[in-house]
Amino acid sequence: MESPYKTVIFDLGGVLIDWSPEYVFLKEFRGNREKMDWFLNEICAWDWNANQDAGYPIVQATEDRVAMFPEYEKLIRMYYGRWNEMLGYTHEDTLEILRQLHSHPDYQVYALTNWSGELFPRALAKFDWLSWFEGIVVSGDEKMRKPFREIYELTLNRYSIDPKMAIFIDDSPKNVVGCEEVGITGLHFTGADKLRSDLIQLGISI
């Protein structure tokens, strides 16, 4: 039976691209994971980084944080100053799934990512396979981010995607819930093998 799905939308970080502040800060904290985790939860916190994913300027964000925690200035400036070191490798097993979908005549592939618009060009320079997507929506460029419905609606409207014919893949459960609220079928990514199985169950030929 032919699948009703014609569009597959990928998250990038955690699904296709490895990224982690740990690559910088675990060394700075001399292997002390407890201290590193405290710093990343309390000083350069995840919700602070999410603001930059929604378009807040990196320079201003850094100065804001230094003003709040001047005793951690050196470490705070490392967060974006050494950001390239946090950008890791391609998840090759997921990339193979993308490759098959990209080469299949029945499917179109897009990306929807929470990512600073200032930093995303570095990913474009590093990962040439990003050119396989029909289009990429970068939250920082749009001044909105997942899991809020506006960015899913923007993606659907920009590329004339029928939500009933679309699948969205993300490693964050809340982002999957967000896509489902606008009628897209969501898949929570936990690994390439499970993703392949989930796609096949939905009738996708890979």
UniProtKB/TrEMBL annotation:
Keywords: Hydrolase. It comes from the Bacteria. GO terms for molecular function: hydrolase activity. This is HAD family hydrolase. The keyword Hydrolase applies. PANTHER family: ALPHA-D-GLUCOSE 1-PHOSPHATE PHOSPHATASE, FLAVIN MONONUCLEOTIDE HYDROLASE 1, CHLOROPLATIC. It comes from Aureitalea marina. Signal peptide: none annotated. InterPro entries: HAD-like_sf, HAD-SF_hydro_IA, HAD_sf. Pfam families: Hydrolase.
